[in-house]
Design goal:
Length: 500
């Protein structure tokens, strides 16, 4: 069989139970879904050097007022202001601030060893944040971590600093980096700690703050103050086009991380749960099979939680696939079911497990064993696929939501494409579809595609019409990166906002 059809654009639910397609329309007209639960003052904090904190405060004051584009654009609508859209405001007289010494940042940016450089830079932010949580009385729901662009540039994997006479060559030889080895000198033991973490400022900082449950939003200075730090007028004019989009994104994320739900899926089926599997190798050696496994669970209200599984030999170098042992698969799904019941008072009627690979017999027995007598479990493989493209003799490409179903269990969903509401297409190129296959369990294929298309609209880290991937897989790599950014990272079950 082969069938070509279109799934209508999923709607979202906002304040007063009103439903619209575009999150910006809904927030503008009706406010967020939890408008009666989170309103008024929110307590935030800002951590960073004095110039960057100043930029952040100025920006937060600006987005309490409307932000409008220089020319009307349906794809980038005006931002009405923080209080107008979300009914919350920041009391700048009750703003927590933590200073990070600029000279210390400049000093660590001269470290030629990337491990030492990033470890020390993250500690400049993480240590006082942990201390504040332990000692200060005024609660802070969200911390804005404002960083100079230089940290972003030289705090990433494979980043190298320019050669200079004042560079600092502090570090250990490879044979001395093993944490099982100890030194007589405390400074060398301290240096050794850096090699327990990956060279990535964002992931390392998030990982270090997981045990303390500190919620952060990391912001580059050029994101909020490009017109003050750049001199190139052409770049400034280009960046200005995205002012409204930045305001929508930053404020939506703030509202979510402060404890609110910006919107809920409008047509999602009740008592259904979605689980996205997350895998990340613990080292770059292709022959090493060790990997970290975790799961992102998303409830029917749109919020999500992350469950860390065990470290183990989940990677197969031959097939380049990840698979769990039966016992570990059972434990991971059981954690998810228990958490769902604690939230909802009952087990879900259906749980859909999304992954990029097939499920083997051993791990599927683990999943079904944990679900037995509690819920019905369905396995779905989702991956981007360039095998098929659909071309049209029109100005714009195939509409988002187009499905080419080739069997009862497999087909292609175009989650990107032309969007009538925006009068444009998502992306500049002819889009590739998602290859969707029901690999385990039984479910109507069209319903599976409808759910996946709906889940592309649950990215609370941005305020956009829709994503190309469902949220169950959208942040899988990022969460895996945070969980493996350091050795022996310990974190209990935490909501999604701690990772993004």
């Amino acid at each position: 069989m082969s069938d070509l059809y279109h799934i209508p654009e999923p709607k979202l639910t906002f304040g007063y139970g009103q439903k619209l397609q575009d999150p910006r329309d809904g927030l503008l007209l009706f406010g967020p879904f939890t408008r009666n639960k989170l309103k008024g003052q929110v307590n935030i904090g800002i951590v960073g050097p004095e110039p960057q904190r100043k930029y952040m405060k100025e920006y937060l004051k600006r987005i309490h007022r409307p932000v409008t584009p220089e020319t009307p654009d349906k794809a980038r609508p005006s931002f009405p202001g923080l209080e107008a859209a979300f009914d919350i405001f920041i009391n700048f007289d009750n703003l927590a601030e933590i200073d990070v010494n600029s000279s210390e940042i400049e000093r660590y940016l001269r470290f030629t060893d990337g491990y030492q450089r990033v470890h020390n830079l993250t500690n400049l932010y993480a240590t006082p944040l942990e201390k504040y949580g332990n000692e200060e009385e005024m609660p802070v729901t969200v911390w804005f971590v404002v960083i100079p662009d230089s940290i972003y540039k030289y705090g990433r994997p494979k980043s190298t600093i320019p050669q200079a006479k004042d560079n600092i060559r502090a570090g250990l030889k490879k044979k001395d980096r093993d944490s099982a080895q100890s030194f007589l000198f405390a400074d060398m033991n301290k240096m050794q700690e850096a090699y327990n973490f990956e060279i990535n400022f964002h992931h390392q900082l998030k990982a270090k703050l997981l045990p303390a449950k500190v919620v952060t939003q990391i912001i580059k200075e050029s994101t909020i103050a490009y017109d003050q730090i750049w001199s190139d007028e052409e770049n400034i004019l280009s960046a200005r086009k995205f002012d409204t989009a930045k305001a929508w994104n930053i404020v939506t994320t703030l509202y979510y991380k402060a404890g609110g739900i910006p919107w809920k899926l409008g047509e999602i089926r009740d008592k259904v749960c979605y689980l996205g599997l997350v895998y990340k190798k613990t080292d770059t050696n292709e022959r090493n099979t060790n990997a970290c496994c975790a799961a992102q669970m998303f409830l029917d209200n749109g919020d999500g939680m992350v469950f860390r599984g065990n470290l183990g030999p989940w990677y197969n170098p031959t097939t380049k696939e990840f698979h769990l042992r039966k016992s570990d698969a059972s434990e991971l799904l059981n954690q998810s079911l228990v958490a769902f019941k604690e939230k909802s008072g009952m087990y879900p009627e259906q749980i859909f497990i999304h992954a990029r690979t097939n499920f083997n017999d051993d791990e599927w027995e683990g999943f079904t064993g944990a679900a037995a007598g509690k819920t019905n479990v369905v396995g779905v493989k989702i991956r981007s696929d360039g095998t098929y493209k659909i071309y049209r003799d029109y100005s714009y490409c195939v509409p988002r939501g187009t499905v080419l179903q080739v069997s009862n269990r497999q087909g292609y969903l175009w989650s990107r494409g032309f969007v009538p509401r925006l009068q444009t297409q998502m992306g500049l190129e002819v889009p590739n579809p998602l290859n969707i296959e029901i690999t385990r369990g039984e479910m109507d294929f069209r319903t599976v595609c409808q759910d996946i298309l709906s889940l592309t609209k649950l990215n609370y880290n941005a305020c956009i019409f829709g994503d190309g991937l469902p949220v169950t897989l959208r942040f899988a790599n990022s969460i895996g990166d945070v969980l493996t950014a350091g050795k022996n990272i310990r974190a209990e079950v935490l909501t999604f906002k701690h990772y993004i």
